[in-house]
Amino acid sequence: MTQDEDRRLSAGRASRRVAHGWATAATVLLLTSCGPADDPKGAAAPSAPVSASASASATASSAPIGPGEVRIGGEVDKPYTITLADLRKLPQAEASVEFVSAKGDQKHTYQGVLLHEVLKAAQPRFDQSKKNGQLRGVVAATGGGDYRAVFAWAEIDPGFAKSQVLLAVSEDGTAFEDSAGPRLVVPQDTRGGRYVSELNQLWVGTVDPVVDGGR
């Protein structure tokens, strides 16, 4: 078995392990996004045992983004903010990856939450009247120092992608501090440019390009 085949099998097993847990956890995120804010950061009171102390906020507020917080918004029906602590309470997947960074060859094992599930909870407004309307979707990730990277929705959707992008909460068994995480982990990338550190914003939108007025 080749290394690529082993990675694909590992990603598939991880997706199956978290699928059942996310069926409940995603519902909790949607419920918390509808609840009243009960702390200064706009955190909503949880409404299910699986996330008893989660602090996902009702909406993506205009307040400053705190350490360890990720604001999710754009063309979505339920924008919200999720914290690094919230992510640790959700079903976890694991990815062992190798990539090249500015510091040289990297080899790490990350644990975290599937990006697709976190974004799906915000209910992106894809045009379902179009065939595979979600394939017009894009995701822009913002990290520390206003660093940005963009993904096509198909890259994170398990219905299309062979591997899954993670919002990692730990690296090689060491949990990220609020000031350092979460971090995007992109198993299919050979270079680390889209491994966005100090992740703080995720924007979901669609593109409908027209070239020279044509359709």
Automatic annotation (TrEMBL):
Superkingdom of source: Bacteria
Signal peptide start and end residues: none
PROSITE patterns linked: PROKAR_LIPOPROTEIN (PS51257)
Pfam families listed in its UniProt record: Oxidored_molyb
The Oxidoreductase molybdopterin-binding domain, residue ranges: 69-204
InterPro entries: OxRdtase_Mopterin-bd_dom (IPR000572), OxRdtase_Mopterin-bd_sf (IPR036374)
Matches recorded under SUPFAM superfamilies: Oxidoreductase molybdopterin-binding domain
The name this protein goes by in its record: Oxidoreductase molybdopterin-binding domain-containing protein
Species in which this protein is naturally found: Streptomyces venezuelae
Lineage: Bacteria, Bacillati, Actinomycetota, Actinomycetes, Kitasatosporales
